[in-house]
Design goal:
Two copies of one chain form a homodimer.
Chain A lengths: L2 E5 L3 H13 L4 E5 L12 H6 L13 H7 L3 E3 L3 E6 L4 E5 L11 E3 L2 E4 L3 E3 L12 E3 L3 H12 L5 E5 L3 H12 L3 E5 L11 H12 L3 E3 L4 E7 L2 E6 L2 E5 L1 E4 L3 E3 L2 H5 L23 E3 L6 E3 L4 E3 L4 H15 L13 E5 L2 E7 L2 H6 L4 E9 L10 E9 L4 E8 L6 H10 L4 H5 L15 H10 L2
Parallel strand pairs in A: 1-2, 1-7, 2-3, 7-18, 9-16, 10-11, 10-16, 11-12
Antiparallel strand pairs in A: 4-5, 5-6, 8-17, 13-14, 14-15, 19-20, 21-22, 22-25, 23-24, 24-25
Helix pairs in contact in A: 1-8
Chain lengths: 448, 448
Amino acid sequence: MARLVVIGGGAAGMSAASAARRTAPGLEVVVCEAGGFAAYGMCGIPYYLGGVIADPRTLLAYPPAEFRDRRGIDLRLHTRVTGIDPAAHQIRVAGPQDGPDADGAPLRYDALVLATGADPVLPPVPGPSHPRVVTVRSLDAAIGLRGVLERGQIRRAVVVGAGYIGLEMAEALTERGIETEVIEALPTVLGTVDEPIARLAADEVTRHAGLRLSTRLEAVHGDDDGLTVLAGGTRTRADLLVVATGVAPATGLLTAAGADHLPGGALITGPDMATSLPDVFAAGDCAALHHIVLGGPAWVPLGPAANKTGRVAGTVAAGGAATFGGIAGTAVVKVFDTEVARTGLTLAEARAAGLDAVATDVVSRSRAKYYPGAVPLHVRLVHERGGRLLGGQLAGREGAATRVDVLAAALHARATVADLAAMDLAYAPPFAPVYDPLLTAAIKAGAR
Amino acid sequence: MARLVVIGGGAAGMSAASAARRTAPGLEVVVCEAGGFAAYGMCGIPYYLGGVIADPRTLLAYPPAEFRDRRGIDLRLHTRVTGIDPAAHQIRVAGPQDGPDADGAPLRYDALVLATGADPVLPPVPGPSHPRVVTVRSLDAAIGLRGVLERGQIRRAVVVGAGYIGLEMAEALTERGIETEVIEALPTVLGTVDEPIARLAADEVTRHAGLRLSTRLEAVHGDDDGLTVLAGGTRTRADLLVVATGVAPATGLLTAAGADHLPGGALITGPDMATSLPDVFAAGDCAALHHIVLGGPAWVPLGPAANKTGRVAGTVAAGGAATFGGIAGTAVVKVFDTEVARTGLTLAEARAAGLDAVATDVVSRSRAKYYPGAVPLHVRLVHERGGRLLGGQLAGREGAATRVDVLAAALHARATVADLAAMDLAYAPPFAPVYDPLLTAAIKAGAR
């Protein structure tokens, strides 16, 4: 019987395994997952840590039994892949003592899907590894950290890094009454949005937590009483240090084997999620994906594409046909009480790509001006001087999260700002002004 | 000096006047408005009546002085147009005693914009006109009605008609503690959505107010103590009867003069909002507009198109260049605590248009399933068997209002359900599941 091996039991890997099973009922499907959980919503971890979600099992899309018993997928937890030999079509596996991979014997595959995700990148600072210096990337670790948080042992925390995870963690910690400071090496938070939007997010952070920008973590020292954190020339004490300074594709096994990849390690994939190695596919955060605005590969590790590319990789690896349509770089994050959303290219990204781009900003309202609860909504459109829409960003206490999808749809349609201005968008006083903020922005952009 | 006359001071008319002023600073711009207010948000009236909005002046986009003093627009309130002579390029006007039109002399125009909106259609029932039998179409009348409501004289109300205005009025009245019953001649509420979505809206109505479907108003009798309402063979007492049985284009003056129009009276317009009569334009609820899915004229009287077509008509009437891109029939309504939204064609409309249409329904969730506050969101996609998207409808306690705009954008792009399924939509647990409900619906639709 032909065998598909999937490395990684996250969203991409389990989507691949399930799609392969649907495509080829007779295929043997093995999933090797290094951790103790599979198919969980990693994006929910900050909310689990903050207490918004009580039970970590609710983060599981399906329990392991669903895969093993109902879908016939050989899901092997606590099973680490230690080597890949593409020429021999086999991998080397270190599994638990009581499992099939205890002996470390090679595992042959007919097709392989790499869905190893991304690993946290730690800042290169002196300081010991310490149980109170943590990253937020696995549910196993999060369950341990939540226990620490619930025992009330953390009074002061420092979060290093002001990206999506760093800001979500700052919110989670402050919701537990922990005095929290965020330090960020860059001069703005959220490097994935332009400065005017980042400033709104930063303002929101400072209403709830400490924030020091342009501040590097210089050292961490642990002792019996906690941590001493040296950052920006200042020494502070903390009971917890959360490192959220970004992630890198976990592709060492394949890049060492010669797979084509971007400089940062993300694997180059085709529309069918095939890598440059025979019978090896990649999906999720370890893969570079076709960016519909850039027209080339980009590495934007986010949940929706992980699920979709997993489905494509598993279908194709099992002998079926599927293609991935590409990413627009759409993302949204809740920063305390503010929604920050983006799609396409920022102005900085567009100019870095050599495009003749400008940005048009408007501050409109989330509802009719006379309707209670209307709040300012900042819309930034990034577009070519000729009118082609390249991207958009929104920030406000409501109305940003779903509106960004209209811009994503416009990017998929290769719309101009005039096309956007002509769109017939919904109006009712509780939900939007008669000229939706997106239309107001598009009209202004079209007049340039 | 050349003169532009605009008939109607609502959203379309004042947009036309302002656009004309910007286009041709030397043009004389006269606006004749039959009522006592101009440029107000008619869609806000139910919220003003319900008490959500305190001051009716907040419904005004701008006060009259803004138009008269700052924009140089000759805005004439309480001024009714009684005749139009397209051949002679003049209208007949009845204005207040102290105004320029007191003598009823003809007013010559070089260009005319008809922005008369739509008038309520009253059910053809016996019964006297009575001060407690009201429609909801003008701010002048609403101010009087609000006084009645605030004096606590209304304990029981009947709303005739379960369209947008009828359901918004039911909400407004119940918010004031008034026992309210909605009666509707059709077997469903909201004739602009298909039955599954209408049923969700009807369920929501019945949680807050009485609802009798397939029930015709048969007679109303007024006496000193209030009203006797005969409907569906049942006689009930009420202190107020709100008639919200729809509207018809207020185009009698122009159709009598020979302007091309749809059977119901809506004026046929070109992309520049010109009617078939020389130098006569139309905008807003009195005009039929190009429907991007039907590919022909349709009458869908809603606020956003009124503003946009007013702007186009005024620009072109003043000698400038502009075109209206068409409507998708996008609309959203708050039905008590439920959002109901639609765009494009319903299944019924698509089949009536001769299209080989099917509908795909999914019930997904407004947020990640594990995130608090996630509620069911019903998505219906209407599409051709071949995959072309024709329309969509959503209903849920959150997440419908703005999501429908993604479908509107897809309709403008002539997308298929496969195109929609490939869109990179935003994900974060507080705002959407990792597969947005729109994607779940599109994937299911594509598999048919």
